[in-house]
Design a protein that fits this description.
With about 290 residues, the protein is of the alpha/beta class. It is about 35% helix and about 20% strand. It contains eight helices and ten strands. It is globular. It starts with a strand and ends in a 6-residue tail after the last helix. It is an enzyme of class 2 (transferase). Catalyzes the phosphorylation of pantothenate (Pan), the first step in CoA biosynthesis. InterPro entries: ATPase_NBD, Type_III_PanK. Its cofactor is NH4(+); K(+).
């Protein structure tokens, strides 16, 4: 069996998704979900299986077990990375697996230069490819006449604008909750380390001791920043945007950042799906992968 392994290499985690070859499965959306898809764009691919690997974990056993479950005879890989050493590590691990299984492996690196996306920023080569991949995916999900705002809750939180004609317009970057928690501890003498790593479980806004106060500040500060950034980007537009949310704990945050004229749609694997969509585009281009 063949298909595509899409990889999103972040600063603290590596996410892999398996996308069967076209026609190998039938997971097309129906009913209300299908009505959200743009008429002109192809359907956004969704992974049949995913694997998450922490940067400080051993990868050999979970990767081998995951690949065993896929029963594939060719490793076709599309990888987007914001962390070079982690990308080299996962590619080396996959090459070892390919050699052990006596199967072929073909790896394509995704960058701003080979994505099906117009980037309207000053230095596209410096934009994290994960942001661009989520924009590629948003272009498959949004209505043809509507811009999109994409919120990604990762090591850093990003809020990016995609224009109605599909161009990546840029956006905003702020620290994720784990990064902010570490900064509070490292840059002060008395504040303890908070184990909060994602926006999960809304806390009371009035903390009764130091750790709960830190949690309240991290959580509601991030939610407030996201809401304000969406509102500011919304003010630039003449057409109501569609808002897509991805990343850790996104479902619990979606209900908190909606607005009076838009709803927030949770898309759990937006970067992986964007990588798969980009690989589809490359494969259909003469001379592409």
């Amino acid at each position: 069996m063949s298909g595509l392994i899409a990889i999103d290499v972040g600063n603290s985690r590596v996410k892999l998704g398996y996308f069967p070859a076209a026609g190998a499965c039938d997971n097309a959306p129906e009913g209300a979900a299908a009505a959200l898809l743009p008429i002109a764009a192809p359907r956004l691919p969704e992974p049949d299986s995913t694997l998450g690997l922490g940067s400080d974990e051993s990868w050999d056993e979970p990767l081998a077990a995951w690949l065993d479950g896929l029963s594939i005879d060719t490793l076709r890989v599309a990888i987007g990375s914001v962390c070079g050493p982690a990308a080299e590590r996962i590619v080396a691990a996959l090459r070892d697996e390919a050699q052990r299984r006596s199967c072929e492996i073909n790896v394509v690196g995704l960058t701003h230069e080979n994505l099906p996306l117009v980037t309207r920023v000053e230095a596209p080569e410096r934009v994290g490819v994960d942001r661009l991949l989520t924009a590629v995916a948003a272009n498959r999900l949004r209505r043809p006449d509507a811009p999109a705002i994409v919120v990604d809750l990762g090591t850093a939180i990003t809020v990016d604008l995609v224009s109605a004609d599909g161009g990546f317009e840029g956006g905003a970057i702020l620290p994720g909750v784990r990064m902010s928690a570490r900064a509070l501890n490292e840059q002060t003498e008395a504040l303890p380390v908070s184990e909060m790593v994602e926006l999960d479980g809304s806390p009371d806004a009035v903390g009764k001791e130091t750790l709960s106060a830190i949690r309240a500040g991290l959580y509601w500060g991030a939610v407030g920043a996201i809401r304000e950034l969406i509102a500011r980007q919304r003010d630039r537009l003449t057409v109501t945007p569609q808002v897509f949310l991805t990343g850790g704990a996104a479902p619990s945050v979606a209900r908190l950042i909606g607005g009076p004229d838009y709803v927030v749609r949770h898309a759990p694997h937006l970067a992986l799906s964007g990588a798969a969509a980009a690989a589809e585009s490359l494969a259909s281009t003469p001379g592409g992968a």
